Amino acid sequence: MAIVGPTAVGKTAVGVALAQHLDGEIISADAVAVYRGLDIGAAKPTVDERESVPFHLIDVADPDEDFTVADFVRLAEEAITAIRQRGHVPILVGGTMLYVRAVTSKLSIPHVPPQPELRALFMAEAEREGTPALHRRLEAIDAPSAARIQTNDRKRIIRALEVYTVTGQPLSAFHTPEGVHGTPRPDTYLFGLNVARETLYARIEARVETMLATGLVEEVRGLLTAGYGLEYKSMQSLGYRHIAEHLTGGKDLETAVAELKRDTRRYAKRQLSWWNADPNVVWLDTGEKTAAQVSEAIARRLAHYKKQEPQ
């Protein structure tokens, strides 16, 4: 089972309530929360949330590690097996679309290890001609991946070019013929959370302000001081890239924050577009409901679906 939806919609709170209701354990599906030291900007679960139910796949990599989808799948499947052996219910909760999809559906993940020399060549090209030029090169060989990756996302562009260079196939070719959503695994349920767009955007604004008030700038400064610069994939994440550009590139904080809020809204729109295209997602409008109320609605639907299954 997975709880999906746009950032700031309240997935973690609902996941905690559902895990308490079903005697479950949560597997975090967040590409930033996997990194140690990236806490505030990742909006990791609070101490109270972590004490109330078990969480997995948080703080499993250092910021300079190239943590891949294949790494996530391996650790997630190990966690799922262990959770089930304890007689508990594994609940995947998070906003990283491909992480969720790779675990809940049958996708072919390219097992291409990092190629340092190749990456250095692409990095030099990006420095010389600009990241958008690298994106145009990707578009020429893998239009679906180029459409999914932002023009300034150097790390992901280089990774896609790396896979193509090593395998001779575009990264998008590793997805199933059914497309990026793949074929659902048996006994898998996807529940999507959503609210009115203006409510969601207000929550995004409030989340960013809370991050700043609780020390996001200081957190990013500490990571930069520790040697984790923008050359690492972790530091290209929402929030970390924006604040790092403020601290190292001379961009004023007001501009960096405005761009962070804008890019977070855009990310939420991409998440919604992704999951809306999947007919297997059962949507719940959370509205003014509490996390407990939403979790109870999910539990009722889950029980209903299981009754319909052949014995």
Q: Which labels suit this protein?
A:
single chain, Histone, subunit A, 8 strands, alpha/beta, globular, Rossmann fold, 311 residues
Question: Mind explaining what this structure looks like?
Answer:
It is built from 13 helices and eight strands. It is of the alpha/beta class and 311 residues long. The chain folds into two domains: 2-108 and 177-308, Rossmann fold, CATH 3.40.50.300; 116-174, Histone, subunit A (Orthogonal Bundle). α2 links the parallel β2 (24-28) and β3. The radius of gyration is 20 Å and the shape is globular. It starts with a strand and ends with a helix.
Mean pLDDT reading: 90
**How many structural domains?**
2
Low-confidence stretches: 176-181
Taking the sheet with the most strands, its summary is:
6 strands, parallel
Number of helices: 13
Number of strands: 8
Percentage of residues in DSSP E strands: 5-15%
> Could you give the distance between the termini?
19 Å
- Quickly give the structural class: alpha/beta
Q: Based on Cα principal axes, name the global outline.
A: globular
* Rounded Rg: 20 Å
In CATH terms, the superfamily of the largest domain is P-loop containing nucleotide triphosphate hydrolases
- The strands making up the biggest β-sheet line up spatially as 3-2-4-1-7-8
